[in-house]
Amino acid sequence: MRVGELAARTGVSVRSLRYYEQQHLLTSERSPSGQRHYSESAIGQVRLIQQLYAAGLSSKKIAEFMPCVVDGRATPALLERLAEERTQVEQRITDLVEVRGRLDAVITAATDNMLTGASCRRETST
User: Fold this and answer.
1) Where does residue 11 fall: left (phi above 0), alpha (psi -120 to 50 degrees), or beta otherwise?
2) In angstroms, how far is CA 59 from the centroid of its own chain?
3) Radius of gyration over alpha carbons of the chain, in Å?
4) What is the pTM of this model?
5) Which residue range forms the structural domain that includes residue 79?
6) What are the DSSP calls for 84-117, one per residue?
7) What are the residue boundaries of the HTH merR-type domain, all occurrences included (predicted)?
8) What percent of the chain has pLDDT over 90?
9) Pair (97, 64) in one structural domain
């Protein structure tokens, strides 16, 4: 199918499909006249790419995962890698909650020791 048909069938813009190719997330064959042609499995690949973007993954990370997609479908290897990614996200969340707790403690201590009427200016370097 041509790029316009793939765009229509997936709800993704032609521009996005071209970007996916530039990022090595999607491949096409070229006709003798230079037109892009995609296999039927490209529909599943595009939908998966969209889901991974919606999950917050970067194009670089998605490109690492795409070899684990066969005929537009996830393989067990992809599911394993996604589970690893989820574990890393959970660790970042834990770390951020800890940082937030430390900031709350600093804010509380600073509030208890606050000077009234004092002003604070941010110094900027030029």
Assistant:
1) left
2) 6
3) 23
4) 0.71
5) 75-113
6) HHHHHHHHHHHHHHHHHHHHHHHHHHHHHTPPTT
7) 1-68
8) 60
9) no
